[in-house]
Design a protein that fits this description.
alpha+beta, single chain, 5 strands
């Protein structure tokens, strides 16, 4: 997904921030292609300053080329340079201060070298503190886990910490509250199943683990037993 965002200030100044790559490996960064996108956006937005950004989620960004140059007959006709900015623990104060969804996801990158589980928990908890719905948490939880690079063996600790956090309203609690406010057990079931199926599809949760979660929801009275049985069957 390539996204160009154009911002216009009160004095008429315009700037375009262009996201070229995301979810990329460092070795796949192609500076000629970046230059192509940069030039195209600049042509489409005359007078605007254009800043291309590449989001690389590998821990080691050492393979990213630093410059694209072309010199002909001793004359420099092209000098396209890159600057690598790595997200780390030193960025935590600013990311927490920003209070937006992008900054919350960046917490996964800032903390993952210290503790992958703590990194993903911090991102999801930050999202839970922001205005929004259970759908926001359901959509972004798989991304937080992927950015933090949590191993399968760490998933039980991740979910346990989510449920222990005193300020965390879990995805499943949100689903329950939303269903109860509507007076619809069907709504609770659909929301829970949608959440679990997303996690299974992302490879974050196994089918067996998703079934176990459905059984927990039934045991806690979040969804009725017949609906739980149907949900387990629908997980495959």
């Amino acid at each position: 997904l390539d996204i160009a965002l154009r911002a216009t200030w009160a004095d008429g100044f315009q700037a375009v921030i262009l996201l070229i790559e995301h979810w990329s490996e460092a070795r796949r960064v192609d500076l000629p292609r970046v230059l192509w996108y940069y030039a195209a956006v600049r042509l489409q937005n005359p007078g605007a300053e254009v800043l291309p950004l590449l989001l690389v989620t590998e821990p080691d960004a050492g393979q990213i080329p630093g410059v694209l140059q072309s010199t002909i007959a001793g004359f420099r006709v092209l000098d396209f340079q890159t600057r690598v900015v790595q997200i780390g623990p030193e960025d935590l104060p600013r990311l927490r201060q920003l209070q937006n969804h992008v900054a919350a996801m960046m917490l996964s990158l800032a903390l993952r070298q210290v503790d992958a589980v703590a990194a993903a928990v911090a991102a999801v908890v930050a999202l839970a503190r922001m205005p929004g719905s259970a759908d926001d948490l359901r959509r972004f939880l798989p991304l937080a886990v992927k950015l933090a690079r949590i191993r399968d063996s760490e998933l039980p600790r991740f979910y346990a910490q989510l449920r222990e956090d005193p300020v965390m309203v879990t995805i499943f609690d949100e689903v329950q509250a939303r269903g109860e406010s509507r007076g619809e057990s069907r709504g609770k079931t659909e929301g829970a199943v949608a959440t679990l199926r997303d996690l299974v599809a992302q490879g974050i949760l196994s089918v067996d683990a998703a079934r176990a979660e459905i059984r927990r929801l039934v045991a806690n009275g979040v969804i009725p037993e017949p609906a739980g049985t149907e949900a387990i069957n629908r997980l495959g």
